Amino acid sequence: MAELLPELIEEVVSAPERGEQDNVVALVAAQDTDDVALLLESLPLEQRLKVWEGIPKRRRLDVLVAMRGDPRETLISATDISEWEAIFFEVDAEQLLELSDSLPNALVDKALDAMDKQQRQYFTDASQFSDDEIGHWLSQDPLVLPLNAKVRDALRLIRRDVPTHADTIFLVNRAGQFSEAVKLTNVMGLPEHVPLVDLSEEVFDTINASDELTTASLMVQRSGFASLPVVDEQNKVLGRLDVSTASELLNEFYERQIMATAGMDEDEDLFSSVPKSAKNRAVWLGINLLTAFLASGFIGMFEATLQQVVALAVLMPIVASMGGIAGSQTLTLMIRGLALGQVTGSNVKALLKKELSVGGLNGVVWALVIGCIAYFWFSDAMLGLVICLAILLNIVAAAAAGVVVPMVLNKFNIDPALSGSVILTTVTDIVGFVAFLGLGTLFLL
């Protein structure tokens, strides 16, 4: 899909101009669930909603589960309440656990009503754990047999059903506590009367349901088995964690770490609304502002030496720093989008427009804040105006550079993740200093 995604994005975005909207939507609806989810995340809101309308209701639940939180919420909000009964047909506990943070309480209740008693109990049990504990994400379909089971029992169990990524049978005592594990391959071809306990693994790890999810996921990846049992404090088997779920949880963790370096959430939508994007990023800009003023305070120690330009010298780091953090936020979002094939020539103009709007909104807010602080600090209204304009110009320029720089680097087959931040910092520093000192020359000297 990574290779086809740019082509599909271009098809969808240009479909209205060619009068082929219905044909393109039908083409998208025929793709695999994960592919449809990734494509929807890559589309501007208007095109996203049109494609969503063409997705069959029986597939919408799986698509929502596969999506990130922010773009998923835009589709949930746009879906009529009358459609949810069909969407929740055959919903299970694992799907609802994935969606529950994005769904209004009324829809969570509707989904629970659509479940059978067992699935509702699974949901209730998993909800007792926080979303950073592995008990919240375990699979409720382990292969379990009593400790006195024989090969014939194992073969009967296997003939009924073998869940995905299940390569072992968990043996439990009468209290449901984990005792042994037997690989399925060890059962094949043996006499039916052989006790399974005689075939058990010498060393087999268990995961406590309260374990942190990354720790538990790494245990599965390093175990050499397709899944490990998840147990409670009494060692009772609650479910299992398979290698596929473990890999997804780790991927989300590492993506979250990368996005967090810019003060952003891994669920950030490429095309979320301007106010929401601005709000999500404003907190980090505020934190950065504190560190920038700290640097300015040290520069201010040389006030006597700097004489007439002291105010400009003291405030210069703030201009460069605010532009740098704003640009790094956009750059991080772009690098993720390019890595996943979500950003192409077809949607980059819409993305640039959105990022400039976010930069403009945050630029106005923080320019006014910093301008007022500068005015009260130095009792100079003109100085406040100068830094206010410089901050606004630099944050908007940083947003533009955050989109353009990685696109240009990618076009020349240069990894934006390696060199994008260096170029971006250079751009924001130059724009910030030239704007600030240039305006200062015009209005103050």
Automatic annotation (TrEMBL):
Topological type in the membrane: Multi-pass membrane protein
Domain of life: Bacteria
Pfam families referenced in this protein's UniProt entry, alphabetically: MgtE (PF01769), MgtE_N (PF03448)
InterPro entries cross-referenced by the UniProt entry: CBS_dom_sf (IPR046342), Mg_transptr_MgtE_intracell_dom (IPR006668), SLC41_membr_dom (IPR006667), SLC41_membr_dom_sf (IPR036739)
Transmembrane parts of this sequence: 282-302, 308-335, 356-378, 384-409, 421-444
Cellular component terms per the entry's GO annotation: membrane
Keywords from the UniProt entry: Magnesium, Membrane, Transmembrane, Transmembrane helix, Transport
Family: Belongs to the SLC41A transporter family.
UniProt name for this protein: Magnesium transporter
Organism: Paraglaciecola mesophila KMM 241
